[in-house]
Amino acid sequence: MHLGNYLGAVKGFLELEKTGKYETVYCVVDVHSITTPYDKNALAKNKREIIIDYLAAGLDPKKSIIIYQSDIPEHIELAFYFSTVETIARMMHLPTYKEKVKQHPNANTMALLNYPILMAADILIYKAGLVPVGIDQEPHLEVAREIARKMNQQYGTNFPEPVRFATKGEYIPSLTGEGKMSKTVANSFINLTDSLEEIRKKIRSVPTATTAGGEMSPGLKSLFTFANLFLPAVTDRYKKEYNDGTLQFVKIKDAIAEAILAELKPFQERRAKIATDKKYVDGVIRDGADRARKIARETVREVKEKMGLI
Predict the structure, then answer these.
(1) Number of domains in the chain
(2) In the beta sheet, which residues pair with residue 130?
(3) Is residue 176 part of a domain?
(4) Which of 213, 206, 217 has its CA nearest to residue 252?
(5) Can you give the C-alpha Rg of the chain in angstroms?
(6) Angle, vertex CA 156, rays to CA 154 and CA 161, nearest 5
(7) How far apart are CA 141 and CA 136, in angstroms?
(8) Beta strand pairing call for 130-131 and 163-164
(9) Can you tell me whether residue 28 is helix, strand or coil?
(10) Which family does it belong to (predicted)?
(11) What burial letters (b/e) apply to 96-126, b meaning 16+ CB within 10 Å?
């Protein structure tokens, strides 16, 4: 994971878990990752790294269910049943689908077209009413709500209509100054395992200006967003210096880099320890799959019965 994942998603996951108000399921969506071109040799390693990241960040496998999507084949089965109530035209009009086709014109597959239907299955198989995702996922959540309504109306199922659960700091800007931090955009992200030297180099690369003052560029806005996140006590002083024309960009950049490392250091130490404990990580994955499948099997059984398959 990168810093945007950590601040925009995982910190929110931890807040949800700590409230004790919700049953929480966190899914590494490895099946979704194969809907566009990918490196099959890296997939197994990368998805395990995400589980380790979750554990190092503080997710408690006793309080939450932590799973690989591919370990729960009922997700795929339910997605097929859901596909009977959605049209091809509806899927093709989704802006996310159109964007992906532009990015991968030679990989316009049925898997890509059905991505939102599988996402609906990921959510509704657990009868989840709240989904902690960013605003960019709202079109997919609307598909999940449509499917819930159609299944309930046509077959008498009892799916909730899931809504987005907004968490603090959900939008983390790219280091390039354009869009959000993303692994798919070169030079836009900070890895959670980066050293101070690596973080400093990346933060120093944020495009700013030759002199302080005047209207802020996109890069400067990103820089001050990071200042607000990691240096809230002194951000106003930096803004005053900027407006006065006295701010030294390297000074604020290096201060942000050091503050980011201070935030990540405990995570990095926990992660190094967990990564060496293969037995523990394997146990978490196995236990999560067992618990999730008990729920998933029951949902699929209900759907098959309502649809007349059993």
Answers:
(1) 2
(2) 163
(3) no
(4) 206
(5) 22
(6) 90
(7) 10
(8) parallel
(9) strand
(10) Belongs to the class-I aminoacyl-tRNA synthetase family.
(11) ebeebbeeeeeeeeeebbbbbbbbbbbbbbb
Q: 75-89, 122-136, 267-281 — which is least confidently predicted?
A: 122-136
59 and 123 in a common domain: yes
CATH (domain of 160): 3.40.50.620
Cα–Cα distance measured from residue 267 to residue 278, given in angstroms and rounded to the nearest whole number:
18
Instruction: Report the distance separating Cα 118 and Cα 297, nearest Å.
Output: 16
Q: The CATH number of the domain where 227 resides is what?
A: 1.10.240.10
Contacts of 305 (CB under 8 A, 6+ apart): none
pLDDT tens track for 145-193: 999 999 999 999 999 999 998 766 557 889 988 888 888 788 889 999 9
Assigned domain for 184 exists: no
The parent domain of residue 260 ranges over: 196-273
Helix (H, G, I), strand (E, B) or coil at 267: helix
Q: Are residues 9 and 114 in the same domain?
A: yes
Query: What's at 192, amino acid-wise?
Result: L
Residue 58 counted as domain residue: yes
Specify the DSSP element, H or E, that contains 26: strand 24-28
What DSSP string describes 252-264? HHHHHHHHHHHHH
The Cα 26–Cα 14 span in angstroms is: 11
Q: pTM (2 decimals)?
A: 0.88
CA distances from 171 to 26, 41, 66, 300 (A): 19, 31, 23, 34
Average pLDDT over residues 206-231: 87
Is-contact 206 253, C-beta < 8 A? Answer: yes
Residues 6+ apart with CB under 8 A from 240: none
Query: Phi and psi for 121 in degrees, rounded to 5?
Result: -65, -40
- The three-class DSSP label of residue 66 is strand
Same domain assignment for residues 164 and 214:
no
